[in-house]
Amino acid sequence: MIELGLSRISRLLQQTPLTWKAIHIAGTNGKGSISAYLSHLLTSGGVRCGRFTSPHLIDRWDCITIGESVVQESLFRQIEEKIKLRDQTLGIGASEFELLTATAFEIFNHERVDIGVVEVGMGGRLDATNILNNVLVSIIAKIGLDHQSLLGDTLEEITREKAGILKRGVPCVVDGTNLPTALSTIEERIKELGIDAIYTRPDAPDGHSSALSQLFQQHDVQPHQRANMCCAISALKLALRRVRPDIRVDSLVSQLSSVEWPGRLQEIVLNPMVARTDSVLLDGAHNSQSAEVLGQYVDCKLRPQGSPVTWVIAASRGKDIVSLFHPIIKSGDNVATTAFGPVDGMPWVKANDPQELASSVQSISAIGDVKSFDNDILSAINWACSKANGGPMVIAGSLYLVSDVLRHLREAQKQSENTTESEDTLLAPGLLCT
């Protein structure tokens, strides 16, 4: 169950003041990418950096990194147990996300990070991460309609909640590609607090970094990635100006080309999990805004191959299926629908019924074959591989689906390695059977 509010997290952390400074990021889309860019750049610049994002991708602790490395499971479990004991002793009744947030912040203390890059879990104003009180810069990424049942029915209401991370005396960076309604709502909050603000636009990167402009010219950077990079660079300059003015941000910009953010427009080979050796596109687009970005990428990069696209899709219960999938799945495409499994630490998250997904997709004009596979993800992927026959293939609709796919792939790789080791042992001198 999701319970927004700051009272429980305040009690969880009241005994342990945070020893590090923060960069705080809110928004509907782009938060994770901006976090990844900032963490990578800070680490490249020699700053000891922690990063906390949500949800986790494969393992529950991979949402916390120290210096670009996932925190050790043993340390995570040690700190988590201490937080849970504190919760029980004080009778707080903290939510799963509040316990996770407190665990991440305590790990940052334990690891003596200089700067923690922290992504909001949901909303902003009442999100557990908004307990932060030593923020160097706040970032408002791209805002769209999502989680309306908790944040509000309109873009204005949702924006007001996300702008709730802005604090008096703390400068902010705003993605200037936001819709006018969102921008005007953010501007009201900025004026109310009397804080400095930078509005970034990817079509004018020179205003933020000449090195970034050069990067855009040299690499195939998608429009949404450009917007996120502009936010990251502008925020980094503001943050380091206050704590490490000796670091030249422009000298780090080239490092952005090597940042990887799994599950977002990720080209991946699923062999040995399945027989297909051609890459597939893996993307966690889960709302209309991120689906639009995915659709543009597919139209530009995959459809020119001349073959219909084959999809494997799943979605969280409560998502608007029509706005999520209908604009990106086209006539002639083939679709396998499935469901992700239970999400560790997030028992309230449920998958949409694959039969309902299939019925919705079948209403698309001149759609190709559509088949439902319930929660059998591997069968769905195998069917899609057969249908695609080496042509373009996309797995999308939920980060939780992405997580399950990556877990299946990891398990298949382990089994393949074990099989290879067994064969090597049998063929070793003196052990060969005759």
3D architecture notes:
This protein has 434 residues and is an alpha/beta fold. The protein is built from 14 helices and 14 strands. The strands form 2 sheets. It has an 8-stranded mixed sheet, with helices on both faces. A 6-stranded mixed sheet has the order 9-10-14-11-12-13, sandwiched between helices. Strand 3 and strand 4 form a beta hairpin. Helix 1 runs parallel beside helix 4, helix 2 crosses helix 9 and helix 3 crosses helix 4. The longest helix is centred in the C-terminal third of the chain and has 29 residues. It starts with 6 loop residues before the first helix and ends in a 7-residue tail after the last helix. The C terminus is likely disordered.
Task: Identify the notable features of this structure and list them briefly.
six-stranded mixed beta sheet; 2 domains; one-carbon metabolism; alpha/beta; tetrahydrofolylpolyglutamate synthase activity; metal-binding; Mur-like_cat_sf; Folylpolyglutamate_synth; Protein-Tyrosine Phosphatase, Chain A; eight-stranded mixed beta sheet; 434 residues
Q: How would you sum up this structure in a few lines?
A:
It contains 14 helices and 14 strands. The protein has helices spanning 7-13, 31-44, 73-90, 96-110, 148-151, 155-162, 180-193, 210-218, 223-243, 288-302, 321-325, 354-362, 377-388, 399-427; strands at 21-26, 49-52, 64-66, 69-70, 115-119, 135-140, 172-175, 197-200, 266-268, 280-282, 310-313, 334-337, 370-372, 393-396.
